[in-house]
Amino acid sequence: MFPKNCWYVACTPDELDNKPLGRRICNEPMVFYRDAEGKAVALEDFCPHRGAPLSLGYLEDGQLVCGYHGLKMGADGKTDSMPGQRVQSFPCIKRFAVHERYGFIWVWPSDADQADINLIPHLEWAENPDWAYGGGLYHIQCDYRLMIDNLMDLTHETYVHATSIGQKEIDEAPVHTKTVDGEVVTSRFMDNIMPPPFWQMALRANDLADDVPVDRWQICRFTPPSQVMIEVGVAHAGHGGYEAPAQYRANSTVVDFMTPETDTSIWYFWGMARDFKPHDQALTDSIREGQGKIFAEDQDMLERQQRNLLEYPERRLMKLNIDAGGVQSRRLLDKMIETEAEAG
Amino acid sequence: MFPKNCWYVACTPDELDNKPLGRRICNEPMVFYRDAEGKAVALEDFCPHRGAPLSLGYLEDGQLVCGYHGLKMGADGKTDSMPGQRVQSFPCIKRFAVHERYGFIWVWPSDADQADINLIPHLEWAENPDWAYGGGLYHIQCDYRLMIDNLMDLTHETYVHATSIGQKEIDEAPVHTKTVDGEVVTSRFMDNIMPPPFWQMALRANDLADDVPVDRWQICRFTPPSQVMIEVGVAHAGHGGYEAPAQYRANSTVVDFMTPETDTSIWYFWGMARDFKPHDQALTDSIREGQGKIFAEDQDMLERQQRNLLEYPERRLMKLNIDAGGVQSRRLLDKMIETEAEAG
Amino acid sequence: MFPKNCWYVACTPDELDNKPLGRRICNEPMVFYRDAEGKAVALEDFCPHRGAPLSLGYLEDGQLVCGYHGLKMGADGKTDSMPGQRVQSFPCIKRFAVHERYGFIWVWPSDADQADINLIPHLEWAENPDWAYGGGLYHIQCDYRLMIDNLMDLTHETYVHATSIGQKEIDEAPVHTKTVDGEVVTSRFMDNIMPPPFWQMALRANDLADDVPVDRWQICRFTPPSQVMIEVGVAHAGHGGYEAPAQYRANSTVVDFMTPETDTSIWYFWGMARDFKPHDQALTDSIREGQGKIFAEDQDMLERQQRNLLEYPERRLMKLNIDAGGVQSRRLLDKMIETEAEAG
């Protein structure tokens, strides 16, 4: 249950090296590669000749060649040539609209002609030289909506991530959720608390004392179909919290794209964007390593939750105030899916 | 096809340490733990909030805490508390009746209110200080009734356990099977034969000559739903066999509980109880090691038999005299299942 | 979708050592062994007593004994004896016709009474002392017809086997396909080309210069239900090609039997027969090793193609001139399957 008339992150540029990349997205087997001009292309991963996966083939001057019998596929899904064959009447394969922006390759899994690159959500941090980004990719066996729930309700940090970013005060702070302009925002502010280990590390990285009370904030923003950006940070207590001047703050943006692979599995692109020391690659690497460990802690819980839900399909889950972020996000998704169903 | 209004061995006390234990029994996902008083508890392994498995959580002063969002579950299946929430209206989860006795945790997989601890079968050896016990647990992919068949027809020892307890004379001795007082007993007596390797070892452990003829016996007793106790032993020939005075005997009780996990898999608790040298822990360990090796020999046969039966569901198996133990055991089980179906 | 009234290669003699061999062929679980006279036998892999797989048993003087309870099975599928039992009324299990010939054990998966050993296709190289043979066995997850397609269209060599036997000129040479006398023959002749690495090696093994132009040929012959023999070779250019005298030639016969295990998996017996240096065992071993590596390159492609076809069952594959070998082979198979359906 996912909308298909929309953009999803398909892969990162480093995954498109000199070989085609096979990746299933929204139940569609796709092959990704770069053409002669370096432009990303996505096609159905199915050779029209005998059904071989084109992703097992190779690239010749930016042209995709089937690794079975040498059929050369065009970037438009029409066969370009094949040794000893006239190819005009060969059936076409599906072409998917792709666009490279903000350091990701985006794909539109339904009709390519409807794809509008203006619909790719704007990512300020990705274009601003004052920001740096580092991230990774996990393959997780769960419905993408379980990951959205997870990210839109950070009380789980207290339990799943107890040794890094969790702390009791998250549970105790009230949470506010609203849907505005087609996005869901859920926020939590915790004043005058001690920073947990991850934030102590971040304070030190900002040359700030790590053993004094801080004001902490979490502002989660869901943008359909599958993006959650979370502004997180701490500031030395009493300097304005989220509004504090930069010299008192350590903050960053958690970046999450959960692209459905199937109904119960995702490609989870996670990362962190920050606007301090943007050129410090060692810091980027160290943050990525730390975040990677923290985010791996969710995997077992989500996969086991998924299995439990498959086992009891008739059970209705609870919708508490802390779940409002996930609930409102699903409402936007349901609307998109309904609109697509009506349209086509 | 198993009765559910009855007691099954769920786990052993050493499996309930400081963490919850997730275990599926009779197709029910359960979580086991000890409460603040050390009493064993079993609940459905499903958090009423978002369906996470409670067995991924932790224990806080004997209370089960969900590892996802910190819901605290009561031993009665009612949510006790959750940070920042009123929990009175939370849906309950299933509570299962459990009871610790004889060195095992027993569970009643259906309605807890019907559970009667007086129905746990009496195990003399477990309470008598003249006896010692050692055992283990195997997870086997077969219907629990295939294991009952296996244990109620020991002619397989000659073939499956040829190098330890098997010997030709088992096949040659007549077998007697009867159903008495809701139990099935099948027995075999082999007089004046040479002891096979396992019994030579047991004779030596009893300070008896191991190279002289013995009288050997096997008395298998099935108690529904899934318990087989086997009195096994040898005595120097001519001293009365099964009735021989202790100074001529080496004997013990093979202990088997095969708890259904699903229709085609079991938790197989196996062990051996003995009434000689009960305080000799090294002997207990050595017997357990030997028995563990022997009982592992059955696993492949049972799993492959199960796959063959799934492949040919319409075939009727033979019911020979040697199969009478299994056949009569299944009759008792069918009756229990039928009674349950009528009742509920 | 495979015919069953016909011979398939089941195993090689070295697989029938002192233990029974369990192998599924055409969806039938079978057990193979040699009787007291050394004659190969095939039976259903199902003990009539309790359904244990007989292949887990053992051989006693050429008699198959069930490893569970010692039932002794006759080579005719009738139980011969069982300890303490009268076996006359035991149900029979299926016996399959088997015949050992040409260095293979052949099996007829349907009614044994219809099996006619004269229908085993003649293999000249297997009986002629001027020839040597070496080969191996791969287990591949694909429909046997995908492997037939593969072998009847060698243009894939250029892509799948680019570093050994592939070369651009294969694609460029016209292919001729015809069905004659119940066989399909597809042939390709490439004159005055440079030999690829594998054939350079073969030329050297024949004490011929490996750096001069050659005439190369490939003559693929499909014999139903699942045999493809390919005459392959090169001769120094200008000496008559396929007809060239032996002193200018390096040639051999690629041997392929793809026995269906299930609808989407095969036992693939591959090998090479040659009529030069037939007694040079080191050469046989070295050819087998090289061929094994080359043929392993097809596995991933075929398995991934199979998965793609299962995903899109409604898609029709193309039938180009290069596919004529596979297309005509499937036509013969369809006819056989239809004839069987009408008969039975």
Automatic annotation (TrEMBL), chains A, B, C:
InterPro entries: Cholesterol_7-desaturase (IPR050584), Rieske_2Fe-2S (IPR017941), Rieske_2Fe-2S_sf (IPR036922), VanA_C_cat (IPR044043). Keywords: 2Fe-2S, Dioxygenase, Iron, Iron-sulfur, Metal-binding, Oxidoreductase. Gene3D superfamilies: Naphthalene 1,2-dioxygenase Alpha Subunit, Chain A, domain 1, Rieske [2Fe-2S] iron-sulphur domain. Residues 7-107 form the Rieske domain. The keyword Metal-binding applies. The keyword Metal-binding applies. GO terms for molecular function: 2 iron, 2 sulfur cluster binding; dioxygenase activity; metal ion binding. This is Aromatic ring-hydroxylating dioxygenase subunit alpha.
